[in-house]
Amino acid sequence: MGSGEAVRHFFSYEKGKIGNMRCTLFTFTVAFSIGLWILLLMPERAEFFILHSPTAIWFVVLSVLLSRYLQKPLFGCVIAGLCTGLLYTAGYQHIFVRPIYRLVGQTMQITATVCSDPEVNENGQRVEVSIPKEVLKGGYPKAEFSATCYLPISEDILRVGDRIEAMVSFYKPTKQQGFDRQRYQMAQGNWISFSILQDQKSKAPVHFVVTPVQKVPWYGLPQEWNRALGARILQQLPEREGGFLYSLLLGNRSHLDFLDAQNLKKAGLSHIIAVSGMHLMFLIGLVQLMFSRRIGVILSIGVIALFLPMAGGSPSILRAGIMATLSSVAFLLGRENDGKTSLAAAGFVLLCSNPYSIFHLSFQLSFLSTLGILCYARRLEQQIFGKIYARVSNRFFQKPLRVIGASIGCSLCAILFTAPVVIWNFGYMTLLSIPANLITLGIISLTFSLGVFFCLIPFLAPCLTPVLQLLIDFILNCAKVVSRWHWGVLYWEDASGKLAIAMVILMILLLLVKWKSLITVPLCFCVLVGAATFAHLQHCNTTRVTLHAVGDGQMLSIAKGYDTLSLIDCGGTGNRNGLRLTQELMNEYGFSEIDTMVLTAVDRSHAQNAAAILEAVPVKRLIVPSQRKKDEMLEQIQDTAQEQQVPVTVWKETGVAPITLDGILSAEIAGGVDRKLGVHLADTGLDLWVLHSMTQTMLVKLLRKTPLTASDVILANGFEKQELLEETLEILHPDNIILSSAYASAPALLGVPVQSTAEAGDLVWRIPHTRR
Fold it and tell me: CB 3.0–4.6 Å: which of 43, 297, 409, 497 could bond 381 by disulfide?
């Protein structure tokens, strides 16, 4: 066999097989990913693998030769993939990442170019920029590198291509509020962060100049087109429907109502607003429907190349784009396409371009769900619906039945393969995606297709607007209704939730392996129903006390099952503001009102969002501290409470007095300090004093008059006076100190363990109870 004939045989397509490439490429890519993952978890080992790379290469060659001799090609693929993944990642870190890390801790003046639209909040804006390699003062293979920066609000909105000149300080992002920001940014190709250097007295930037771009560069055009289409959508449709259509078509969720986003997530429909393979399938199908098959395939390649950057270029859409392009090329060449091979090729390309993209949540969910669907969806569909298909001969009923069967098979496989990632990241699994997808799948497809015409053919917009409004309202209302089925959400934190999740996975596995016992699967289903019911009842009879991570402010929520909600303080800034957190909490559990709201201080850290909450949400009772001087914020809160007919109690009592908080066995308020209150919560497994609002001097003054003790105590992160801290801890005698703060802290204070919301994120106390 000649060399040309051998190559053709290797890439041949016979009965769904691409020669040996189908198996070897997939196995190699999986092993490559494992090796890459191992080294990213142990980055300090990179130098070791670089030093011993000749040995590793020799080992790979030896394993390949041995596998050929033993006629075990998979063995050689696994060893080669593992070693290649380890060596490639080590080399990537050494060449592209390590030189940039030398900037950590340095302060210098730089010039950077804006690469993406900024994320703006009330405190500033976060934006991705590219920096010339000259700042590294050494060899670097690329002309520039990417970074994430935090900038003050500029007069004009930053656009792609704008030039920034500033005095900056470089640093490595850390884990904040339970979220690993460094991994997230590196998964997007941003290796380092920097902030603008500020004057210590005035807090103004030392040097910060923005030079607007005169003409948007070519790489910024897709984002410009994205904004133009988004503006057209938002102009023609109402705010709620326009925000949804914008996110559905182009993946831009900045205008999507956050409560709708929460409902979609809980109902298992969040994939429809994260542009992925489904959206690309709709788009390509629409193109091929308008033209002949061959012309449609040719045009679809161009559509893919245009749509990917417009949709943001996330790993999920890039994966779908690569697979769709390979499928189109295979069709044009007269070859049969193989899904697993295309998936492996897409994964290999993305991981080679940036190994850290494996940490991206969309990468993990997209590849795992697609793998499950490609490998097992059809088998699972036949196992469940095969006999039903055989008995239904009427074509009118058979087609919709097969659509339902395919949808259920795909949903179950996606649930099975993504379960570990979903539980690890979100702490729960939702079974609601199956009914939600069955109800909305056809409507979503129709909405997407009409939305494309709505954007590209302006004169059709007036005709399509009412139709799109009806379709979008149907989808959003379905998500809202389905998300209220609390029994369909299984929380990993509950033992019964763990059992129910295990039964779901076991039942799907038994169906996949075609388990022949007629008892096992129904038995698993019965156990699942029992465990899910018990988990729901357990959740109904549990009070959750949550200290929310809201930066330097404080906000505690006390949620009794699905019945009542109380708040202690409502501070916070940016996307973690108290109003939004309250609305999300009420929407998630179905609360209609706030039973009690206690403000331990009337200032930005504790009551910034109080007036907005009183205006937006029904509140039955408000408790505020007494204060001698007039305060503008307090007056605004009292005026709003009066307008909304909310009873206000100004706490004037000194010492400790009891109050009633639904869901808590014993609650007390400590008064006697001007403008401040302390709150004590005690129940099964909970003994907590909330003293965050008080300064060191105020707290010591209170403790001298009224000694307080508790297992846990919440304090502010400000301990300038050592002697006052010692006296405070000597009186309180806590087992744990909890800091509601935006900044990391020492692991212990005077020998007492410390937890901080800046690092751990939300802290939750769960109190199981029976009827009281």
Answer: 409
Neighbours of 99 (CB within 10 A): 18
Tens digit of each residue's pLDDT (9 = 90 or more) over 506-563? 877 777 776 655 566 677 778 778 888 888 888 888 899 999 988 778 899 999 988 8
Task: For residue 516, give every residue at least 6 positions away whose Cβ sits within 8 Å of its Cβ, in sequence order, or none.
Answer: none
Paired residues of 748 in beta bridges: 753
| Closest by CA position to 692, among listed 735, 647, 748, 737 | 737
Residue 500 CA neighbour count, 13 Å, CB half: 25
Contact 650, 693 (CB under 8 A): no
Backbone φ and ψ for 280, nearest 5 degrees, come out as: -65, -35
CA distances from 676 to 607, 694, 698, 705 (A): 12, 6, 9, 15
Using CA atoms, how far apart are residues 586 and 618, in angstroms rounded to an integer?
A: 11
Q: Is the dihedral of CA 430, 432, 434, 438 positive or negative?
A: negative
Q: How many CB atoms lie within 10 A of CB 399?
A: 10
Beta bridge partners of 421: none
CA angle 263, 309, 288 (to 5 degrees): 85
SS3 state at 415: helix
The pLDDT tens digits for 136-175 are 877 788 889 999 998 888 777 888 889 999 999 999 888 7
Q: Which of 103-117, 358-372, 530-544, 610-624 has the lowest mean pLDDT?
A: 530-544
Residue 205 β-bridge partners: 198
Q: Output the CA–CA distances (angstroms, integers) from residue 628 to 296, 552, 631, 642, 650, in the order listed.
A: 75, 25, 9, 20, 12
Distance CA 202, CA 196 (A): 14
Distance, CA of 755 to CA of 532 (rounded, Å): 33
Torsion angle of the four alpha carbons 235, 239, 244, 245, in this order, in degrees rounded to the nearest 10: -20
Closest by alpha carbon to 648, among 626, 627, 622?
622
